[in-house]
Amino acid sequence: MSVALAKEVLTIESEGLLAVRDNLGEEFERAVDIIMACPSRLVVTGIGKSGLIGQKIAATLNSTGTRSFFLHPVEAMHGDLGMVAATDVVLAISYSGETSELNRLLSSLKERQTQIIAICGKLDSNLARHALVTLNVSIPREACSLGLAPTTSTTATLAMGDALAVALLNRKQFGAEDFRRNHPGGSLGARLKVAIREVMLTGERVPSVTTEASLAMAVAELNEKNLGAVFVTDDQGVLRGIVTDGDIRRLLSAGKSLENTSLAAGMTHDPVAIASDLMAADALSIMQQHEITVLAVVTQERRLAGILHLHNLLGKGEFRFLI
């Protein structure tokens, strides 16, 4: 009974996220432009559950290169408003858009001519009217069986904050090394400081076939090693290509069969690779730049030495040093 209810909650929340995604448009680009043009800080504000979500959004923004802080609406009206500079941009969060404590703060911010971006579920609300841009997080229904407790709406708001942070991260070209500098004491920061050879997979764990293999044989190796890719090497062990899950899907979508397609035709030639003596932070930057999750590790002669998966960098379960 409880498992079935939990699955229903997750289904309702996923439907809410899809609705928010489908509503995204020009206003999101405008919000990113406004924050990018801000010469000082992004001030995040909200109360209750929206305030708790706002604190997390502010923390994510700070860690990904957008200076931010959280301002409690009530404390703001009792002196903390002095923390807000004229050049700041305010990100105000309220699903209803009619939260009285937040609305009182909005009036004061408008008097200061502060630019306001709203994350709101009601586009005809007071908050939306005060805002220069409103990011719509309207959802079909809450997951709460009473329809009262913020559940789907807070998930949608949190996701919108993540979308903003990632969009800003990419616009600022904020890289793995920048992220590491902001996380010197965290586990991720520690992972990114190590050499690639300490976290890469080697030996029989590396999915690979030779250039003489068939595409079907490459797919069998792909399935067995389950890392999303298989490398193709010549008889000297030099890296010549890669076949990914995506390559196979594209072939099948084009109506081609594995039996009638050669390995050379199905693989990507001369794939991106990295040397084992570089740092994990370098690998993460390359993955981010090329939008890939698997990286070949090669020697100076470009012989295949190992494989590095995104999970090896960011962690999947317990992080291990591999030998």
From TrEMBL:
Q: Which residues bind Zn(2+)?
A: H72
Enzyme class of the recorded protein, top EC level? isomerase
Its BP terms in the Gene Ontology are: carbohydrate derivative metabolic process; carbohydrate metabolic process
Under the heading SMART domains, the entry gives: CBS
> Pfam families given for it?
CBS, SIS
Domain CBS, chain residue ranges per copy: 200-258, 267-323
Q: Does the keyword Cell inner membrane apply?
A: no
Q: Write down the NCBIfam families for this protein, in alphabetical order.
A: kpsF (TIGR00393)
Give the similarity note: Belongs to the SIS family. GutQ/KpsF subfamily.
What is the protein named? KpsF/GutQ family protein
Q: What is the lineage of its organism?
A: Bacteria, Pseudomonadati, Thermodesulfobacteriota, Desulfobulbia, Desulfobulbales
